[in-house]
Design a protein that fits this description.
Pfam families: WD40 (PF00400). By secondary structure, this protein is mainly beta. The chain has two domains: 132 residues, Methylamine Dehydrogenase, Chain H (7 Propeller); 129 residues, YVTN repeat-like/Quinoprotein amine dehydrogenase (Methylamine Dehydrogenase, Chain H). It has one helix and 24 strands. The strands form six sheets. The chain has a four-stranded antiparallel beta sheet with strand order 1-2-3-4, with no helix packed on it. The chain has a four-stranded antiparallel beta sheet with strand order 5-6-7-8, with no helix packed on it. A four-stranded antiparallel beta sheet has the order 9-10-11-12, with no helix packed on it. The chain starts with 13 loop residues before the first strand and ends with a helix.
């Protein structure tokens, strides 16, 4: 597996990065209050800064690209409680499509819905709420629904379920509107949009997470007979949650104790490989074997010095 080093122009710690749908551009979020977009090109082509987006008043925690069906659109969230949706009119010319500032505290996580559900963005905040913003990209207008007291002590992470129902194939008219969230309360929750509003489907309470849930990620399920969610915690544990067709009970199984805070978990597009970022920047890839055990496929140890993650946690709270 080859790697490419990309030089970034940030003046402070980088908290998040996201590659666009075509793998050509990298968006990064930093404590310097900016979002930067870098052209990454091929393996031998030099990277190049193409845009610096300003509009946040404090650290920017997350960035995320919308599906290109809706144009070149990027979202960011930060400590200032703002969610900014950016749109590129021409190459390198970005403007603010919408600024959502209804949250009363740091917005710690954002996630775009599957494109089949429209241009929708879920946002999790330290004020304890989850907002779901539905946008009209042509006019910039939007509607927002709020899940009050989703995690009363603060929401740390949100992730959408795949739009396709379990066992269905591409083109199915049966769409799923669900979100999974994690919080400072050490709990993972699943929410479903029913009868015009968001309702709690399940609270995945267990004794496996003893500290705050840092990230959650819902795996692709196309053609499969079960739903799968990975959750990662400050206590070092990654838990795999599964539920059968028909909305059965969620079952949690410890995937691994990394014995260091786990910051991020992310599934491959096929849903069979899990990426885990833990400790002082160590990244590993895992795959479930036929006997249900998880095997390590790849490890990348950070060459960077340890970061002050405790300061980040205090800022988010």
């Amino acid at each position: 597996m080859s790697s490419k080093k990309i030089e970034l122009d940030h003046k402070d710690m980088v908290h998040d990065s996201a590659i666009d749908y075509y793998g050509k551009r990298l968006a990064t979020a930093s404590s310097d209050s900016t979002v930067k977009i870098t052209s990454i090109g091929g393996a031998s082509a030099p990277s190049q800064l193409v845009a610096t987006l300003t509009g946040h008043y404090g650290p920017v925690w997350r960035v995320g690209w919308a599906h290109p069906k809706y144009g070149s659109i990027l979202a960011s969230c930060g400590y200032d409680g703002r969610v900014i949706v950016w749109k590129e009119a021409a190459t390198g010319q970005w403007s603010q499509l919408h600024v959502f500032d209804n949250h009363k505290a740091s917005v710690n996580s954002i996630a775009w819905a599957p494109y089949e559900l429209g241009l929708c963005l879920a946002c999790g905040s330290s004020d304890g709420t989850i907002s779901v913003i539905s946008m009209r990209p042509d006019t910039g207008g939007c509607d927002a629904a709020t899940i009050e007291r989703a995690h009363p002590v603060g929401v740390t992470a949100v992730s959408w379920a795949p739009a396709a129902a379990l066992g269905s194939m591409v083109g199915s008219d049966q769409l799923v509107h669900k979100i999974v969230s994690g919080g400072f309360d050490c709990v993972v929750k699943v929410w479903e949009f029913v009868n015009g509003g968001w309702k709690l489907e399940s609270a995945l309470v267990s004794d496996m997470h003893k500290e705050c849930v840092r990230d959650v990620s819902w795996a692709p399920v196309l053609g499969l007979a079960k739903s799968t969610i990975a959750s990662a915690s400050q206590d070092g544990k990654v838990v795999i949650w599964t539920s059968g067709k028909g909305g059965g009970k969620w079952e949690g199984k410890l995937m691994r104790d990394f014995e260091a805070p786990v910051w991020r978990v992310s599934w491959s597009l096929t849903g069979n490989i899990l990426s885990v970022a833990a400790g002082e920047g160590d990244i590993t890839l895992w795959k479930e074997s036929s006997d249900g055990q998880w095997e390590s496929l790849w490890t990348k140890a950070s060459e960077e010095p340890p970061q002050e993650e405790q300061a980040i946690e205090e800022a988010m709270q």
